[in-house]
TrEMBL record:
Protein name: Molybdopterin-dependent oxidoreductase
Keywords (A to Z) from UniProt: 4Fe-4S, Iron, Iron-sulfur, Metal-binding, Molybdenum, Nitrate assimilation, Oxidoreductase
Species this chain originates from: Massilia soli
Cofactor: [4Fe-4S] cluster; Mo-bis(molybdopterin guanine dinucleotide)
PROSITE patterns recorded: 4FE4S_MOW_BIS_MGD, MOLYBDOPTERIN_PROK_1
Domain of life: Bacteria
Keyword Metal-binding belongs to the record: yes
PANTHER family per UniProt: NADPH-FE(3+) OXIDOREDUCTASE SUBUNIT ALPHA (PTHR43105:SF9), RESPIRATORY NITRATE REDUCTASE (PTHR43105)
């Protein structure tokens, strides 16, 4: 392409987290895309975190699903759209005709665009006539939704990001924002630099990167948040810091909530005992909260993903309602949404117990309103199955057809082996995805190729109710189609009117009109806060150029609404322990969550080499004393098991875990590891109100996973790994990195290695063997380039992969480098950079430590000046700060 014909930069929204950053995507002459922050977007003002910065590396077509596929006798085969759509429509219609509308289901995603989501919900609730549409938001935000509805009567987030700038105290409860909402976290960190007196409190059983800016870290025991916040309510009442006028005018339920709080939580000593933290920390938190009117309490999955998740949410909101600290500048409860369109999904009623446009399923007046607007033949009369119940109903044969769109339940659901059994039995499994091979697509009878980020058009809504456009800047690959289009085409084939949309803006318009239809206080009206009246009738042009805007958008608030003034109901929240208690067989508590540089099941972030170096393998993080107790060792493999399942990963320390707990990341799956799907272990216990699973606590045990040898392969090819006991895979720059381990001793290592790598007798193959030491190393060269290498040892003492990995970027291996090949390191200076800390500039942990030591550096700015690390997106700054602190302590010890 000539430069002059290149399309201009396109403004769009990041594909990942609920911060909802604006992105500028600029196509390059070489076909690549340069991605930068959009300085005009209110969510990020030009900043991006490392995942956002690496979006350009995830757009290649390797592994993409490009054509519809149908399963026949001999597996999947390519099919035409006509045939595939026909099969889905006929399959659903036939099952509905035989077993009724409740026998089919949609399972969708907070990563769909609002337009996709709207159509899916309309199809299920208005035309099929069942509410069996649930979404991965059930696993994510449903406790917040339920908590908001109990408190405010509607799913409202009163505050906005600006409140973080204006606050004098920020409480982060169950949130590792440094890694999961990095751009918002950096906003808080900047605030703290500007005004060091601002108090930051982190409530998390782990000492996470987020704690690097905390004045106070409360490492409470898993599931004890309600005790802590009930105790706070009780303290606020005792100290007389309630806002009597606000409580009287704008709230109900204080007396009942307080009475319940006072039963178990009036005594901070008792709260400290249950939460297993020092009483002085509880008191410090209570005193600071009482003394600081401008306080924002932001919460995420440590709060939501609990069998007491809804009560946790309400116990937090109670404290804000009682003090009138809500909906005003610099204060309020704030639910951090996870997925890019978690909020948009809620607007269209994507959950099985909601109707579109913030209306309720079980309210006949609401149902009549929605059906009247849609002019649909029917409307779901009662709530559908929530995610965990849905997959159980599939296994029980009650639901016979399921269409999974934009989510990977084989990995992300609790008790994931149950999901495997369910999908294996289901009569008709349809999966729409952008990738061909996922743990879930493996079960599809019909596989439908969807357009991905950069290819599709629509809107998303972020944590602060801000609606932004996602815009296409790439052509549709293969035969992929937009999710809304696929849904409409199936609906039409099922004989339903109401789906003749020609473009995304027409769907958005209908969605906006529904939100404002009969929205008021007059006869026949239902008053809802969610209202997009000011965004109706945009037309294609205005929709295309739509600037970010926060709902409600009405005639009175044409530019949107920053804060929603609100009162509400205080809900009594009696504290209770997690459903499954530790037992002699399963004495440890499994906590699961995210790492900085991967997104969920890695289908996209797993493609970006830049994101691979930070955490290269799944791990089991645990306290060193527990490791001793359970006979496992750092750097070696261990098996962690629960009553539901098991997995294998490498033991590590240093994640700030308390005794009695272990932490495992959620990202690895059947495509990236032999046996590291943590969902298989997680208990299917759910919150009774929201149905959200207890992802943060499952009783488990840990044992040594004995192996006879350890190894790794770096290769430009893909390996067949049959018969290897343990493997994990991650994408490097120009190569894939496999970590391997075997359980039986290896006889003929050379023959084994050649077979594994597919290398013939007459190829350029350098090898080294030390039989006695159990060491084998080989390098395969093609021409001047390294093609692959394999290193095996009886002990886990293998050379660093960093230097070898770097050789894959070279067109020709030099003579010096050749000499180092079988040693796995440069023959001269043997510095191993260590695991990546700064992904933007590729700076490793060892490099940083050496620079800090020799340069006697003490500030992040000095580190950035000397190594650039931390100078771009800033996602690694909390880790650099931790290294500086470690070096400081080490220095003191030396001096002392
Ligand atoms: N890098 C990255 N960022 C992401 C995502 C990703 O996959 N990768 N996913 C996005 C999505 S969908 C979501 S939902 C968000 C999630 O964002 P977060 O909720 O911040 O992330 P998690 O790691 O799931 O869990 C947060 C913390 O809860 C703590 N926790 C566990 N149990 C308890 C408890 O009982 N009480 C309290 N107070 N804390 C507890 C855990 O130790 C953990 O540190 O991240 C979004 N951002
Ligand atoms: N143990 C444990 N499990 C958890 C959690 C936890 O903390 N612990 N967290 C839970 C939470 S909060 C969440 S949000 C879930 C996330 O879990 P999932 O939603 O299952 O994870 P993703 O990898 O984001 O799956 C998205 C899928 O959609 C595909 N995709 C991407 N773009 C598109 C598109 O435009 N159209 C279509 N049709 N497909 C697309 C991707 O390739 C991928 O297969 O995990 C939940 N599971
Ligand atoms: S914080 Fe990072 S992942 Fe989240 S929206 Fe912004 S750039 Fe994307
Ligand atoms: Mo999520």
């Amino acid at each position: 392409m000539k430069l002059s014909t290149l399309p201009l930069a396109v403004r769009t929204t990041c594909a990942y987290c609920g911060v909802g950053c604006g992105v500028q995507a600029t196509p390059q002459a070489d076909g690549g895309i340069v991605v930068g922050g959009d300085a005009t977007h209110p969510a990020n003002l030009g900043k991006l975190c490392v995942k956002g910065s690496a979006l350009g590396e995830t757009l290649g077509l390797e592994g993409r699903l490009l054509h519809p596929q149908l399963r026949g006798e001999d597996g999947l085969r390519q099919a035409s759209w006509d045939e595939a759509l026909g099969r889905v429509a006929a399959g659903f219609s036939d099952i509905i005709a035989r077993h009724g509308p409740g026998s089919v289901a949609l399972y969708v995603s907070g990563q769909l665009l609002t337009e996709d989501y709207y159509v899916a919900n309309k199809l299920m609730k208005g035309y099929i006539g069942s509410a069996n549409i649930d979404t991965n938001s059930r696993l994510c935000m449903s406790s917040s939704v339920a908590g908001h509805k109990r408190a405010f009567g509607a799913d409202i987030v009163p505050g906005c990001y600006e409140d973080f700038d204006l606050a004098d105290m920020v409480v982060l409860a169950g949130s590792n924002a440094a890694w999961c909402h990095p751009v918002l976290f950096q906003r808080i960190a900047r605030l703290k630099e500007r005004r060091p007196e601002v108090m930051v409190v982190v409530i998390d059983p782990r000492r996470t990167a987020t704690c690097e800016i905390a004045d106070l870290h409360l490492p409470i025991a898993a599931g004890t948040d309600v005790w802590l916040f009930n105790g706070l309510l009780s303290h606020l009442a005792r100290e007389g810091v309630m806002d009597g006028a606000f409580v009287a005018a704008r709230t109900t339920g204080l007396a009942a909530a307080l009475a319940v709080a006072n039963v178990d939580c009036a005594d901070p000593l008792e709260v400290a005992r249950v939460c297993r933290i020092e009483p002085s920390k509880v008191r410090a938190f209570y005193r600071a909260f009482a003394a600081t009117p401008k306080v924002v309490t932001a919460y995420s999955q440590g709060v939501n993903q609990s069998s007491a998740g809804t009560d946790k949410v309400n116990s937090i909101i109670n404290c804000h309602l009682a003090t009138g600290r809500i909906g005003k500048p610099g204060m309020g409860p704030f639910s951090l949404t996870g997925q890019p369109n978690a909020m948009g999904g809620r607007e269209v009623g994507g959950l099985a117990n909601m109707l579109a446009a913030h209306m309720e399923l079980d309210n006949p007046e609401h149902a009549e309103l929605v059906q009247g607007f849609w002019k649909s033949p029917r409307i779901a009369a009662r709530a559908g199955l929530k995610a965990v119940d849905l997959f159980q109903a599939i296994e029980a044969g009650k639901v016979k057809a399921v269409w999974v769109i934009g989510t990977n339940p084989m990995v992300s659901m609790p008790d994931a082996n149950q999901v495997q059994r369910a999908l294996g039995k289901c009569e008709l499994v349809v999966v729409s995805d952008i990738m061909a091979s996922t743990d879930t697509t493996a079960f599809a009878h019909v596989l439908l190729p969807a357009l991905g980020w950069g290819e599709k058009d629509g809107t998303v809504t972020n944590s602060e109710r801000c609606i932004s456009r996602q815009r296409a800047f790439l052509p549709a690959p293969g035969e992929a189609r937009a999710d809304w289009k696929i849904l409409c085409q199936v609906a039409q084939r099922m004989g339903f009117g109401g789906f003749d949309f020609r473009a995304a803006h027409e769907i958005f318009d209908e969605h906006a009109r529904l939100s404002s239809w009969r929205n008021g206080t007059g006869a026949g009206c239902v008053k809802r806060v969610f209202n997009l009246e000011g965004l109706t009738g945009l037309g294609e042009r205005n929709y295309d150029t739509l600037d970010p805007v926060q709902w409600p958008v009405t005639q009175g608030a044409a530019l949107g609404t920053r804060r929603i003034e609100c009162g509400g109901r205080l809900v009594p929240t009696a504290p209770r322990a997690p459903v499954h208690a530790a037992s002699p067989d399963y004495p440890l508590s499994l906590n699961t969550g995210r790492v900085r540089d991967q997104w969920h099941t890695m289908t996209r972030t797993g493609k970006a080499p830049r994101l691979a170096g930070h955490v290269t393998e799944p791990f089991i993080d645990m306290h060193p004393h527990d490791a001793l107790l359970y006979g496992v060792r750092e750097g070696e493999l261990a098996r962690v098991s629960s009553a539901w399942g098991a997995m294998v990963a490498r033991v590590q320390h240093g994640g700030g875990i308390a005794r009695g707990a272990v932490f495992v990341p959620i990202h690895w799956n059947g495509q990236t590891a032999s046996d590291a799907r943590v969902g298989a272990l997680v208990s299917p216990a759910v919150d009774p109100v929201s149905g959200e699973p207890e992802f943060k606590h499952t009783p488990v045990t840990v044992e040594h996973f004995g192996v006879a040898w350890h190894g790794f392969v770096l290769t430009r090819r893909s390996l067949a790994l049959d018969g290897i006991a343990h493997w994990t895979r991650i994408q490097g720059s120009g190569f894939a990195r496999y970590e391997l381990a075997g359980r039986s001793a290896m006889a003929a290592r050379g023959a084994w290695a050649r077979a594994l790598l597919g290398v013939g007798e007459d190829e350029d193959w350098l090898e080294y063997e030390d039989r006695a030491g159990g060491v084998y190393r080989a390098v395969h060269l093609v021409g001047e380039r390294i093609e692959q290498c394999v290193f095996v040892s009886a002990r886990p003492d293998l050379p660093s992969r960093a230097w070898l990995g770097g050789l894959f970027d070279l067109e020709a291996i030099g003579r010096d480098q050749r000499a180092g090949l079988l040693a796995g390191r440069s023959p001269g200076k043997a510095i191993d950079a260590g695991p990546t800390v700064c992904a933007c500039f590729g700076v490793g942990r060892n490099t940083l430590c050496a620079a800090i030591r020799t340069g006697k550096l003490s500030e992040v700015a000095e580190v950035t000046a000397s190594l650039k690390a931390g100078g771009n997106c800033g996602s690694c700054v909390p880790e650099i700060r931790a290294l500086l602190a470690e070096a400081h302590v080490a220095g003191l010890m030396q001096d002392g």
